[in-house]
Amino acid sequence: EMDLSVSLFEVQVTLGQSLHNAIAQIKASEMRYFYGVFYFPMHEEIMTAAFNGGVMGNQDFVWTFSDGLAEIRSGGYTTELDSPLAKTVNGIGILTMDIPPNELYNEAVDAFHEDVELQEYFRSRVTDPDLLDGFDMTGTFPLFFALLHYDAVMSLGLAACEAETALFDAKEFYETLKHLDFEGASGRVQFDNNTGTRSAGIRFGIYNIVANNVPNEEGLITFTSTLSTTVDFARVHNEVLELEPFIFNPGTSEVPISLPEITMQENKLASGTQIVAWTVSGFIILWSLWWAWWTWKYRKKAIVRASQPFFLFMLLAGTVIMASAIIPLSFQEPMSPRAL
User: Which of 22, 147, 266, 309 could, after both became Cys, cross-link 299 (CB 3.0–4.6 A)?
Assistant: First the structure.
């Protein structure tokens, strides 16, 4: 378990003033590590504004983003050398699910792409033809999201088949779903019995995006995307594996501090103030001692006896203690152990 504190900085879809307010809040928070959730190509306006606001594109701030920036993670992203985007994209991390390709699934998808009869059968089983508007039956190489969708549908089907009653209700269906355990297209599919979330077969990866500062003929630079760290979530324990050192902005693998360096504000007393305090303290002590001598000398006088000498000595002892307290209160660091 880790003691973490999370703050949320919201930006409206329309950006504008909300973007500048969020940047100001980020800067005022004095936090150093941030996780951004927005999508391509919104990143251009957001990152440029963040760079101008001083919260991105330098060694003081570390940014990791969601897979909404998959276009950058997949490679081939280019921008102008020394532009705000070149400086902000360099050294970032992109967190995404790292699910390896499934050859059997890919073969089945390829077979579907080539089987016209199977495609027609698929169309005939869809009750609403409008759902297929713009649907490409030839397709491309499936992303890992397709593997997750496939396993989600199979989980629902298996839970329905394994329910104890044919006319099951939502609660029974949910309880059956939580006890599923099978090998899916995306890996082992297993659910936490308490939360219902998937507890096995989930692996996340952090991709490190580093700029290649050698521009091409058009004056553009490219970025390399390297899988730096993987995290395997399992029911018993999680496994974190560092594959490659993470390169931060401006190009080192040294982990930046998580909070700004602490500046010591000693707020010491001025030497003149100390001298005045000691002088006043000494004057009060000497003056109290003089009055103590005077009270002792004239203790048999009627006016002194009426004021009760013992009570007067108590008052004078109090003034001496009060004045003496000024001396230790004036001590300041650094001090020698002997003085303390």
Answer: 309
**Interatomic CA distance for residues 186 and 189, integer angstroms:** 8
Kind plus residue range of the DSSP H or E element containing 50: helix 43-52
What residues does 207 pair with on adjacent strands?
A: 94, 227
Question: DSSP letter string over 200-218?
Answer: ESEEEEEEEEEEE----TT
Among 85, 31, 80, smallest CA distance to 55 is for: 31
Residue (of 56, 130, 115) closest to 90 by Cα position: 56
CA 222 to chain centre: 27
Helix, strand, coil abundance in the chain, percent, nearest 5: 40, 20, 40
Q: Which amino acid is at 285?
A: I
Q: Is 188 helix (H, G, I), strand (E, B) or coil?
A: strand
CB 53 within 8 A of CB 24: yes
Tell me if residue 194 falls in helix, strand or coil. coil
CA distance to 6, 204, 227, per residue, from 238 (Å): 21, 11, 18
Q: Is residue 334 helix, strand or coil?
A: coil
Give how far the C-alpha of residue 90 lies from the chain's centroid of Cα atoms, to the nearest Å: 19
The DSSP symbol for 268 reads P
**28 φ/ψ sector (left φ>0, alpha ψ -120 to 50, else beta):** alpha
CB-CB contact of 183 with 150 (8 Å) = no
Model confidence over 51-102: pLDDT tens digits? 999 999 888 899 999 888 888 888 778 898 889 999 999 999 999 888 888 8
Q: Give the max Cα distance, the chain.
A: 128
CB proximity list for 98: less than 8 A, separation 6 or greater: 203, 204, 205, 227, 230
pLDDT digits (tens, 9 = 90+) for 99-131: 888 888 888 888 888 888 988 888 888 888 788
- Residue 211 tokens, joined: 């700029």
- Do residues 102 and 209 touch, judged by C-beta distance below 8 A? no
The total number of residues shown for the chain amounts to: 340
Say whether the peptide bond before residue 334 is cis (omega within 30 degrees of 0): yes
